[in-house]
Amino acid sequence: MKNKIIGIGVAIFCVAMSMAQSNNVIDEVAWVVGDEPIYKSDIEAMYSQMQYDGTVFDGSPYCVIPEQLAVEKLYLHQAKLDTIEAPEAMVQQSVDKRLNFFIANLGSKERVEEHFRKPLPILREQLIEVMRTQYIVQQVQESLTKDVKATPGDVRKYFNNLEEDSIPYIPLQVEAQIITLNPVIPQQEIDDVKSRLRDYTDRVNRGESEFSTLAIMYSEDGSAMQGGELGFHGRADFVPEFSNVAFNLNDPKKVSKIVETEYGYHIIQLIEKRGDQINCRHILLRPKVSQKDLEDAVVRLDSLRKEIIRDKFTFEDAARYVSQDKDTRYNKGFMVNVVNGSTRFEMQDLPQEVSRKIETMKIGDISEPFVMIDQARNKEVVAIVKLSNRIEGHRATLSDDYNLIKEMYENYQKENIISEWIEKKIKDTYVRIEDGWNDCEFKYGGWMK
Q1: Spatial distance between the Cα atoms of 99 and 49, rounded to a whole number of angstroms
Q2: Does 8 have pLDDT greater than 60?
Q3: Could you give the percent of the chain with pLDDT greater than 70?
């Protein structure tokens, strides 16, 4: 259960995506918050987007949506007073991750454009504003709630006072360990990729082509749509192999040597250095994995599985010394839920390929090898998984689900602080709601003055 206090931040995606579509040259003002207007077209566009996404409204959308927009403006006004800004490098990195996530889940860049009904460059520009605003809102909220702490006594008292129907039902959860192998790629395929990158380098150095044009045409990274440009980043933002080369570049007219990372093969061009950060472009190519490469990896992993089953060594030892999943190999192979940092997953939170295997397994079972997509690196790998634990669905208890209940208590406290702050901020801010937009039961009091 993620912090509910950032609910307004969740809505920002729809807000910014929809507001960017509106044209306010001649438009009806619905609300004014401070000196910031909220236009009818903003509300209509957001309503359309939220309908498209299947959003269920708790009340009339013509009351819910403008109030969400108004609260966002309160946060942004406070951020100006507190001089809270979003680091540009972090914004760019977040946008790249989000776009790569969309492409991986929808299947292609074309499908992403179809889903959002706009070209990728426009989508990217809108996402930049989304991520920047979301970061700022979260920073304001965290600043307001930073002193919230929960003692065991607080948590116990909170839990004991919960009504029976307020105690959450915990769906089936599992803990799983994983071992992955990368298919062995023939040297010829690697040589072909390097040859293409050398050709691109020569074309740039001879002045025949712009690096950015080649990136748009050929790079297999999400940054291709902006000419391979990554935005300003610090050294730690990249994998070491990439940073070691990128941060040693000094001439924007030159192209780096070929760099191999876990993502594939790159060439890099410096754009600008600014203190301890750089902005650069890159072109990424990934060697293609053939069906035979995958089948060979399946055979190797199947042999390993049989040796584990025969107790030649443990799954944990195999994960440490054989697995090529760097995120789990030093954690005895245990997969970690990035949402809450625990090793427990609800079935829908697991990678689809893993979920399908685990669904019919018993505790202690080890799956046969299967092919899956490593989402972080966008490449095919071969894996086996072990079902380590299965926690059946149940009503939360203090002994079994203490961390969840502690989080619920902290969220409850934070929500109260946020609500009180918003209502005070409303009283201290000039707000005008035009006729036709004020016949509402708002979530927060004080809008109607």
Answers
A1: 18
A2: no
A3: 94
Q: How far apart are CA 297 and CA 315, in angstroms?
A: 18
Q: Do 71 and 422 form a contact (C-beta atoms < 8 A)?
A: yes
pLDDT digits (tens, 9 = 90+) for 11-34: 445 544 544 444 444 679 999 999
Q: What separation in angstroms does the CA of 333 have from each of 184, 297, 318, 325, 336?
A: 21, 18, 9, 8, 9
Per-residue burial over 396-413, b if 16 or more Cβ lie within 10 Å, else e, is: bebeebeebbbbbbbbeb
DSSP state of 318: H
CA 39, 41, 42, 43 torsion-angle sign:
positive
Residue 167 has pLDDT above 50, yes or no: yes
Taking Cα atoms as reference points, which of 430, 432, 426 lies closest to residue 444?
Answer: 426
pLDDT at 312: 94
CB 354 within 8 A of CB 176: yes
Q: How far is 191 from 168, CA to CA, in rounded Å?
A: 55
Backbone φ/ψ region at 283: left (φ over 0), alpha (ψ -120 to 50), beta: beta
Q: Which of 282, 197, 266, 267 is nearest to 231 (CA)?
A: 282
